[in-house]
Records
---
Amino acid sequence: MTQRKNVLFIMADQLRADHLACYGHPHIRTPNLDALAAKGVRFDRAFVNSGVCGPSRMSYYTGRYPSTHGATWNRVPLSVGEVTMGEYLRAGGHKLVLAGKTHIMVDHKGLERLALDGGSELARLLKTGGFEEIDRYDGHHEPGEESGYPAYLRRHGYQSDDPWTDFVISARGPDGETVSGWHMRNARYPSLVEEKHSETAYMTDQALSFMERMGDEPWVLHLSYVKPHWPYIAPAPYHDMYSAEQCLPVVRNDAELNNAHPVVEAYRQQEECVSFASDTCVNTVRPAYQGLITQLDDHLGRLFDFMSRNGLMDNTLIIFTADHGDFLGDHWLGEKELFYDTVQRVPFIVYDPSPEANATRGKVDDRMVEAVDVLPTMLSWLGLPLASHRLEGRDLQPLLHGKQPPWRDCVFSELDYSYRLARVIRDKSPSNAKAWSLRSDRWRYVYWLDEPEQLYDLHADPEQFNDLGRSAEHEHIREECRERLLQWFTSLKRRTTVTEEEVERGTNAYKKAGVFFGQW
Amino acid sequence: MTQRKNVLFIMADQLRADHLACYGHPHIRTPNLDALAAKGVRFDRAFVNSGVCGPSRMSYYTGRYPSTHGATWNRVPLSVGEVTMGEYLRAGGHKLVLAGKTHIMVDHKGLERLALDGGSELARLLKTGGFEEIDRYDGHHEPGEESGYPAYLRRHGYQSDDPWTDFVISARGPDGETVSGWHMRNARYPSLVEEKHSETAYMTDQALSFMERMGDEPWVLHLSYVKPHWPYIAPAPYHDMYSAEQCLPVVRNDAELNNAHPVVEAYRQQEECVSFASDTCVNTVRPAYQGLITQLDDHLGRLFDFMSRNGLMDNTLIIFTADHGDFLGDHWLGEKELFYDTVQRVPFIVYDPSPEANATRGKVDDRMVEAVDVLPTMLSWLGLPLASHRLEGRDLQPLLHGKQPPWRDCVFSELDYSYRLARVIRDKSPSNAKAWSLRSDRWRYVYWLDEPEQLYDLHADPEQFNDLGRSAEHEHIREECRERLLQWFTSLKRRTTVTEEEVERGTNAYKKAGVFFGQW
């Protein structure tokens, strides 16, 4: 009899790797994630495959890079032709349950094309991206019927048609007026929602209720928090838990603004970057951002305690990560998307309860991992087949088990900025506003369509201050990077309608099919 | 009122460009195709996007390269997620009618996944690749119920369960015995089928009947012959219309066999290449191959005559091309697939009856065109929108109308040889048996996964005898080619769920969606 196995795949939204204590932050308190890392493996060099929610998450959910899955930005639906985590799991007899955010956009045209726009079970699953939603909540807009959060808030006394806007992201200003968390100046005030009714608390409650309901039944849960993503406003006491002095120093210098890369320069003209150019903004937002992280950690403590008490720490694979980081003013930038470790590097902690993983408990692994690795790792843990004709990521289980397989020496990330003002500023068409980046131990390289390249020597310049993208003496490095990028493109998996095993069986089998060409 | 417009898209199977009189063959008689070229434009440098039936045709039918459409070889079904010619035409109010071959493989798993495996109209269309089949006939295997050809043969006295095998590709040997066209030694004998009942005659009859039935109704017809593809056996009088002396000299030399590219060397161990290494095989097959071409031309004459008599030459766009060529012993190779113009270059004649095209009638255009250009050209002629978020080819209408738009300077083709014996000989996995080729005016370059590159200087060596793929002094050329290949990869269209117009409308439109991030 197979032992019961669960998976808990936790995602934070817009959480920088360097904002956890176990990743070296000198002031943030994240004892529960630190404890998870002490029991599992902390991957120190984990990267997303796109620095923005939608495409990054679709890489987690499909095990494929954005150039393959095609959902290259937040507003681009994932094609119904793409197979997601939920579908692989379902084929193996598991349900993939969701509490929180996915950023799945429904491919309405694709469904309509295939006459799948009715109310069928299949259409429902395709619309959710394969998730069984116990509570889907994408945050930062009024939730629809898929989330019980607005009704929950009203039940707890937050009377409003839109309690999220009126309470969760609102605060009381100095003169008693209501102010909005959409304005970053208000990040200093506590949210009008009580902490126990906040988004993070609510979604943790959902996960706890789910685990209680499941009892001894096995499960796979994606617990996906919308925080510490903006609007940056924390409930008391987290709103003033940290001072500006307890934040990392902002990483930027004046030299960066001279001779900047034209797309980076265009990004800096966008409102979020203009705002974050002010120290006041940085010093107002960062403490709230940190408070939201400690709050998240506190609730994870509640969850992990429950799991420990109920034996779930013995049979549950736990993956904790994020969809991307946040500039928070670094490099005179706000938000995300661009190719700096600030945004591209994420926390990535894996706890594998199996005895095979005992050798690596508490270890830090600096091999490079990517978002696309989560799905194959999960399938492998559950003993399900890896769809090697589709999945572009790698199973991390050998690493968790202390093995030393040949491993990648660089990671890849992509950006489609066609929907952004920066694209308009650069006067480009929606089809040529794209970039691909390669990040090796030493180099961060970016290939932009119709724009100069970027190159950073991370050994000499770990903060990425000095762009060597137009330096003549580094042309040979850029050339090597282009070669490596070409190799990566040739490795993408487009032959999705046949498995590798089917190809093996069909190789040189013409005569069996009654075809006898080539005989004299 | 819009004038009625038809499209006749004619494809020959495995027809080399240099095997038509208008393309310079000194002996073959193809007066009807020559006349078509004299009325239209003959593209002298037209190339397929893969040198093998399935992926090449799927590029014609989707307007996308194999790396994008994913049907990389004959046995790889086109994903139901891919939109084909028939679907674009249907959206514009046209039916795409088929007489002949498509090589569409049904994506059974994709249909099953989307619960489209029933008998619905939609499932039927997805199974045919969007074609309305008046008679689908892929040749070289026993046709299924989709073709009326076996019943037709039986009605005309060819009594057999499998009249194709017993008559169409059979012949009478010197001692009166029945011999098979599967054996190339028998290419010298006439087929047991009467010419008027042959595949080429039958399919032409289908097209004629269709045009008669349509009367004054507009139509779009894909007339897709299975010849001169093997089995190489022609009905009388075409079987001995040409002598070996009337064939092009075989293009090969002993030097090619020394230090050959390892994959080309592996191909040469496959049966078709072993057979074609003999002059006897070359001299037996080529005359029959040429006979099949003249036969095809004769039937096209019959079709064009009918069209002229019925006014159809005034309102029908005619495109004549092929899915790839045939080595016929050149370079010690048989069949196709590899990256020589012999196989990659195809005849490509376009007749546009509109007055705008009068300036180019009878002209030879040496701008480079590709298989992916057919679909956008057809849509443009019909006044239908070009799906610029999916189509990777270019509209040829400006060229037909004498314009000089900025144009491509190279073409791309691909190969997945994972099903071939050559892959086994090279001891490779099914995932790393791929190649991409770039062909510019001067260079033919091939990038192979885990194999040396190939490079030919077509100015100095138009026949591709001298592989410079490992020549140190040509490294800078190969590097340029790799750069160009990388650019091409970055241009592929994977963001298929939104149109470029939708991206434009959604650009910088966050606030309209109630999202106000970045404000201080």
---
Amino acid sequence: MVSYTFYAKALRLFQAYPSLSKILIVSTVGGGSLLAFSDDCRPFLRVFTDGGQQPESKKKKVVVLGTGWAATSFLKYLKSESYEVQVVSPRNYFAFTPLLPSVTNGTVEARSIVEPIRNILSKRPYQIDFKEAECFKIDASNKTLHCRSAQVTNLGGKEEFTVDYDILIIAVGAQVNTFNTPGVSEYAHFLKEVEDAQKLRNTLVDCFERANLPSVSDEERKRILHFVVVGGGPVGVEFAAELHDVVVQDIAKLYPSVNNLAKITLLEAGDHILNMYDKRITKFAETKFQRDGIDLKTGSMVTKLSAKDVSTKDRATGECGSIPYGLVVWSTGIAPRPVILDFMKQIGQGSRRVLATDEWLRVEGCDSVYALGDCATINQRKAMEDILAIFGQVKKDDTNFLNKQEFRKVIGDITERYPQVQLYLKKSKVKNMVALLDKYEGEIDIEKFKEALSQVDSQMKNLPATAQVAAQQGEYLAKCFNRMEKCEQNPEGPRRFRTTGHHRFHPFRYKHFGQFAPLGGEQTAAQLPGDWVSIGHSTQWLWYSIYASKLVSWRTRMLVVSDWFRRFTFGRDTSRI
Amino acid sequence: MVSYTFYAKALRLFQAYPSLSKILIVSTVGGGSLLAFSDDCRPFLRVFTDGGQQPESKKKKVVVLGTGWAATSFLKYLKSESYEVQVVSPRNYFAFTPLLPSVTNGTVEARSIVEPIRNILSKRPYQIDFKEAECFKIDASNKTLHCRSAQVTNLGGKEEFTVDYDILIIAVGAQVNTFNTPGVSEYAHFLKEVEDAQKLRNTLVDCFERANLPSVSDEERKRILHFVVVGGGPVGVEFAAELHDVVVQDIAKLYPSVNNLAKITLLEAGDHILNMYDKRITKFAETKFQRDGIDLKTGSMVTKLSAKDVSTKDRATGECGSIPYGLVVWSTGIAPRPVILDFMKQIGQGSRRVLATDEWLRVEGCDSVYALGDCATINQRKAMEDILAIFGQVKKDDTNFLNKQEFRKVIGDITERYPQVQLYLKKSKVKNMVALLDKYEGEIDIEKFKEALSQVDSQMKNLPATAQVAAQQGEYLAKCFNRMEKCEQNPEGPRRFRTTGHHRFHPFRYKHFGQFAPLGGEQTAAQLPGDWVSIGHSTQWLWYSIYASKLVSWRTRMLVVSDWFRRFTFGRDTSRI
């Protein structure tokens, strides 16, 4: 590619007179003024920096695994230039996953909800390197990652390479949990990746086109048009609801002869769908589904999937059944990826189900490794584990009784370090920690202190595996990294009870901004903080506006909004491409 | 799906009181008033019509094979309700193929250029049935089509069925011509179908991502980023030009470290690219490509493709060469599909290269079968074949000399039946047919008449295989079908010279509205009727506006225009999905 820019001309000049290049390096290193010319000059500068004439970078090498919510949020908020950042992920784009169910039904296009990671990175004020590859082994003892290109093309063999790191940030997400149910990985569709949604969309159209062929028997036609959703969580429910809309709004017009044969069944192992939501939302959804003719089977476990049948077992009666289907969507939760399971064994977490981090998102039992998003959970420290240490810091000198004045001073540290305390106080309707001790007469000794706090740990809860949590963790970690040096000198976190001094940073705290459950027919349920519940058409518009505002770039925002507009105006696209 | 509409309720009412249904049928058949309720009532009416209580349809069964330019244009213009129309095609959508090169580079999205065929059909005033299947055998003697579902899913086996027809319209298009070059079908990319463009787009991104991996050697990197286009026709040239734009405008920013390694080579077996265009356009394009750094190798034939190398042979010197490549795009012309080759054998056209029709688009040697678009060519009748018959009709009674008065009367018929006459007159700069005979002295006998017309057939030309021709043929044929009964009685075509009377219809006549060749960098060349040539930025805007206006629906129009807008504002999308 020939491009006659200033830089190309300058490059040729320097090639002709090599001595000039030193002047350029001085000017670059000195004032960085040439950098102000932005993008175009990068390849040019690279000519010299690659030559090794510049002093070796003393920056710490940070490697980020993943391009999902957590990783992208981290990269977006990282402002400090004291790191050399590299991103490794098999997906060269960020996907706005909450809109995946909309992609399956053609309400929104797949390309509208993705943003190339290189676009995001090119807007950062410093250079971040991206490698499209999958990390298949984390070697924590040598601080090395083993990576492999995820491409399946005829461009060459499977490229494998290693990447060294000083600091590792694991944000690889999770995979679908099949609970080892036979046949699921062969026959079920998932709703985890963009490719899943695209495949699902095409299979949906396939079902209707095939049911429309003259050689298909009526019974077979019914089977092909039976859509089974396994899992009554928000994703499964949203998919079932959107699918119902598609059938009523679009298929009825385009496939009039088979439209009345389509049937949707939702299988849920628990007693209710949307069981993590408020009961009012569950009830509304169940009633709406019944009215829509969606067959809701709760208490029904899937034991096996064959090419044409779902085998089920009723949890209460133990009765077994078999349902012929044309399409099964499996949406029952997540499990760790193999690379994470292997890593857990290396660092002594082999007996755990999920990778554990502390409240600062540092992987337990491992140096300089952070994990965030769906691939890890925070192992919240129990207050009772540290009860002696806490008491030791607040007792009167030379006695075994509580010094209430000292205690008041550290209440803030305690509630920050053990957030379950706050939840317990709220649940027990006790004003504050001092009030908790008020029921004891006389001086408080260690036994009374233990007794008063004995129940607080019952309030510990794992965070849900949502985009909201992952994004907040990414932002939190980036902000810690930005203030790393400052906080080394002036720690801002809570007091350390077992040793002395303070933690460098405040621990991560999740702020819940509410959760949506789209229920089809332009109706959405929302559970907002403070037990607020909102259901209906206006909530759908709230959903539209919040999702539009949360989209990662103006490009995706424009695309998704125009997709919605297109859907309202022209209906959904049923082309099988 | 339960939908509590008026019709569902009515249906239940009729199921309870069957006698009522007769009233409904009477009202339907009598006034058709219920039909005015449109779409919603169709599945309901079907309940009764399927029962066979309605009188058997006497309509002729027209089967259309294909959903491309010719078929869609035919369906769009067909207004007569005296046919029962069925469409069979493996693609359930129409694709606006001239924008395919834009899809490969992400300038336009694949979904923006397709329109579901069912959307198009649902807007027709009468019901048209669509089957998503591929016709793999045409049995002309039994008037039966053997079809098979093209789906590769786990929905069931390969569905096969037959479709009977009274009138068959073949518009299946063509396939890529590999000229049996070894390795082409395995390793090359094509630009024929939407899937090709999508695959090509992902492979392009793959190339850049892979070249960016640390384990790839510099030499390998150069190979991976070498893009070879085979064929210097308008599609190959447009693809090469757009690819150059992508590299300069987008890749430079997003992949700064490998950008300067990318190289494009265009191989053309002839002496010039764009050889069907005006010489000025060819020259402009060749100069622009040279300036852009696109390596243009004319006179170079491809003899073999291996996984990583293109083998070439210089047409002049016979010298053989080998070019390492990362991506090859093969765009060298078209060949008939296997189903057409088989059909040609059946009807005695086995020795021909392409299916032949007469000027009314009727397949030669076959009853009630029409072929249009890329799958057939019009076998223009030679004037010399009919020269005796023509002369017989215009000679003086009882003599062997031309009656000039009679001759004048049939000149219109002759030039309509043999359009090459007109072209010959224009080329020879002769005013009209009478003037052609003026150079002979005395009375004109058959020998002089023959001599005067002996050169006209040299002006016969096959029509190009373009969307423009296919669309005009579809429109022409639909308009013939619309006026079938009327023209049976009052034929409007030219005089039949060999027998008596007139042909039913005017023969098909192609109107050339010009042709575009986008050359990248917001520049386009256009060859307009009357040897007008226009090249440059303003022509690019002409291209934008004509393509936008020609798009098949308001939906695709909106989508493509917003894609262009998006590309101008945000650049192209390089996500690999």
